[in-house]
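Translate sequence into structure tokens.
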Amino acid sequence: MRSLLFYIGFILILAVMSTVCCLLCFLPFRLLQRIATSGNQLVMVWLRLCCNIDIKVTGQENLPPGPCVILSNHQSTWETFYLQWYFQPASVILKRELLWIPLFGWGLYFMRPIAIKRSNPAGAIRYVLKCGKKRLQEGNRVVIYPEGTRVPANSLGEFKTSGAAIAKKAGVAIVPVAHDAGSFWFRDRYSKRSGTIHMHIGPAIDTSEGNARELTAKARHWISDTLQL
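Result follows.
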């Protein structure tokens, strides 16, 4: 019942904030994103009230003040909302089909995501590199889930190197992020489990040393160690 109540509020919040985002699309991007992602923050408050799930963040001091590439593990829907709010101004890599969802996708479009076509991997990589560099030059952070899809809690998939390649091309740092959200907001179950989601922000990785593959491996190693996998 608590999970059902959460999802009712969750859908209402998304509908309202997507509408607001579309109506205020003429505003400067950073202001618009602050307004739109206040809905993400409200989702987290509603999650705590309905399902007794808290959030604890450590390592805030490791986050550079300017543009960087965030590489995070991917376990849940939770991080797609929380990280966009926490690391704003942020552009997120996502599948293009999400933009086709009425209202929600339209609002998402104005958040300047990097929307890729998964059916064309080669073209998607070129687009991610080009668009990712542009977003960083605009002063945004770029949030990437290098596993490419959600994986079960207490596991870690293989990392793709595109995020590190973007960071190296743009000359910005990589910031690894590890979390255990999948143990509470499950990737394949309707119900939620009470507890505290821990999110850890790792030390920034200098991209001037090493190639994309080596930098990706370094970020994955830190995330794996932090999650004790």
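Note: The domain at 54-227 is CATH 3.40.1130.10 (Glycerol-3-phosphate (1)-acyltransferase).
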